[in-house]
Amino acid sequence: xxxxxxxxxxxxxxxxxxxxxxxxxxxxxxxxxxxxxxxxxxxxxxxxxxxxxxxxxxxxxxxxxxxxxxxxxxxxxxxxxxxxxxxxxxxxxxxxxxxxxxxxxxxxxxxxxxxxxxxxxxxxxxxxxxxxxxxxxxxxxxxxxxxxxxxxxxxxxxxxxxxxxxxxxxxxxxxxxxxxxxxxxxxxxxxxxxxxxxxxxxxxxxxxxxxxxxxxxxxxxxxxxxxxxxxxxxxxxxxxxxxxxxxxxxxxxxxxxxxxxxxxxxxxxxxxxxxxxxxxxxxxxxxxxxxxxxxxxxxxxxxxxxxxxxxxxxxxxxxxxxxxxxxxxxxxxxxxxxxxxxxxxxxxxxxxxxxxxxxxxxxxxxxxxxxxxxxxxxxxxxxxxxxxxxxxxxxxxxxxxxxxxxxxxxxxxxxxxxxxxxxxxxxxxxxxxxxxxxxxxxxxxxxxxxxxxxxxxxxxxxxxxxxxxxxxxxxxxxxxxxxxxxxxxxxxxxxxxxxxxxxxxxxxxxxxxxxxxxxxxxxxxxxxxxxxxxxxxxxxxxxxxxxxxxxxxxxxxxxxxxxxxxxxxxxxxxxxxxxxxxxxxxxxxxxxxxxxxxxxxxx
Length: 603
Prior knowledge:
Elements: H1 6-13, H2 30-44, H3 50-56, H4 66-74, H5 78-83, H6 94-97, E1 100-103, H7 113-127, E2 132-138, H8 141-144, H9 146-153, E3 163-167, H10 176-181, E4 199-207, H11 209-212, E5 222-230, H12 232-240, E6 247-254, E7 258-262, E8 268-272, E9 277-282, E10 288-293, E11 299-302, E12 310-315, E13 322-325, E14 328-331, E15 334-337, E16 347-352, H13 357-366, E17 372-377, E18 404-410, H14 414-426, E19 432-437, H15 444-453, E20 465-470, H16 509-514, E21 521-527, H17 531-543, E22 549-554, H18 561-570, E23 584-587
Parallel strand pairs: 1-2, 2-3, 3-4, 4-5, 5-6, 6-8, 7-9, 8-10, 9-11, 10-12, 11-13, 12-16, 16-17, 17-18, 18-19, 19-20, 21-22, 22-23
Antiparallel strand pairs: 13-14, 14-15
Helix pairs in contact: 1-2
C-alpha cells in the first residue's frame, strides 16, 4: 500500500472526527499552518525512543496533573480548547475530559448555518467524557428547538454545570412586549442544574408559577432575566431562593407592576423595565443601582440600602419619574424635597437636556460625598446661559468633593464651557475632567482653545488635569450582560486604547480562512472618524491582503494633519495586511462624476 504524504498526515491530524478517538475539529490559524509542515515531518520517521524523549522534554505546564490542565482548557473558547489536542500526545485526551465550555456563537458556521451548528452541539455533547462548566445557547432555541435543547440539557456531559446562558437578541424594530405575549414555557430540564449553577441568564420564555415555586439556587451569584414573562410572586420566589445572589439584571420583564427587592447579599441591580415601581426594601449590601431604561412614570423607592455607592443613569426628560430616599424626592433631576441626604453615593450618572449648574449643585446637596460625576447632554448644544446663580451663596458652604467629572457629547459651546469652568474654579479636590468630543474636534487647536475657555490656569485644584477622548459611545443603557453589573464603575468607558486591539467580533472568521479579499481600493464617504467607522475601516486594513488604497472623504473641519495622524494610528496601519500602501488618503469633496469610474473623486 502506498504511504500517504505529509499533506495527508496533516489532514488526518486535523480531521473532524467527533465520535471517534481522533481529535475534534481543528480550524487552522496562520500560526498553525506554519507549524504543520514541521509537525508532519517529525511524524514521518519517529526515531527509537521518541516517546521517551518527548516525555523528558515536556514543559513545566505539561507536567501539571490532568485535572489542573483540564481547568485551564475549560477557560478557553470551544475552538481554542479543541486545538490543544495537537500540541502534544500529552494533551491529546485532555479536552474531551476537561469541563466543557460550549458557546454556540464560537462554533464554525457553514452555508447552512443553523442546522450545522445545532448538529455540532449534539455531536460535541455526545462525545464529551467529562462534566460541564459553561453552556451558552441562543434563547430562541427555547421556543423553536425545545426538544433538542431538552436533550442537550439532560446529557451527563453537562453534569455540574456552573454557567448557563440563553442569550436574547431581539430583532431590529421588534417590540419585545409583543414577543413576550407569545412565549412558551421552557423545558423542565433547564433547572436541573439549580444546585450547581453560579451564573444564569434566562431569556425568551414564560416562567410559570408551578415551575419556579420550589426552585433553590444555593450557589448562584449572578442572575439575568431578559424578555421573560413571569408573575411578581414567582420573581420574588426566585430571588429569595438565591441566598448568595450578588448581581441581578432584570430586562423587559412582563406582567409585573412592582419589583420588590429584599436580599442580604445583593450588590448590583440593573433594571430595564416598563414596571411602575421599584422598591428596595432591604438590601444591606447593595452598592450599585443602575437604570438601564426607565418607565416614563416609574417610581423608585429606596428604603434601606446603607452601602449604595453608584447610581444612574437618571434622565431629566422623564419629569414624572421619581426617586425617593427617605423623605427626599428627586423628580426627573429636580429636587422636590430635600429632607434626607445620601452620604454613601460616590458615583452618579445623569442625562441632562443641557448642562445646568443649578441642577448639579442641587444633586450635590443631596449627595454631598459625590466623587465622580458623569453628565451627558441630550439636546443639541445651545449657546445660551440659563444659570441664574440661585445657589451662589451656597458655594462658600458647600464642600465640593468631586474628583472626576466626565462630560459626554461635549462640543465646546459657550454654555458647555461655562458649565465646565464652574467646576474647574470651585472643585478644590478635582483630579480629572474628561471631555468626550467628536472626532472633528479631536485636535490640538480645539484642546488649546478649551484650556483657555475653561481658565485652567485659575483652577481651584492645582493637581486637576483636563483630558479629551473621542470615539467612546459607551452608555449604561447598552448593558446586555449580567457580568457588566459587577464592574466597580459601570459608567466608565471600556474602550480599548485605540490602535492596540481590533474590536471586530470576528463572526466571519471562518469565511476569511477560506476566501481572499481582493479589494484594491476602498473609499469611505462621510467619514467622521467615530469608533464604528474606524472599526469598519480597520477590519479591511487588517484583512485585505491586496489593498492598495483606502480613501476617507472627510468634512473640511477634519482636513488637517492632526486628524490624518490620528486616523493612521486608530486604523492600525502599521499592522496592515497589505504592505503595498502606507498612507490613508483624505479627500474633502466629490466634484467630477463624468469619468471612466463614475464613483471616483475627480478633485
